[in-house]
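Bench notes, afternoon.
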Amino acid sequence: MMEVVKRDDETIKEHLCKLTFYYGTIDPWCPKEYYEDIKKDFPEGDIRLCEKNIPHAFITHFNQEMADMIADSLKDDLSKM
């Protein structure tokens, strides 16, 4: 299995306007400092910190909450067109 050892900032910068980063507050795979670091490095990006205590494996128990959140975000984006 390949291991990610460094964030690909060039690719993020190139596609930042198309990306949304969603970080959990209770995620042992991705500590809150990762959110803080990327928010500092890309302050203009759509970088969010979960306020609902949704776990990393959200698809097993929180799929509807995540789907609703994404749908709301898309509705906001589409209304600006």
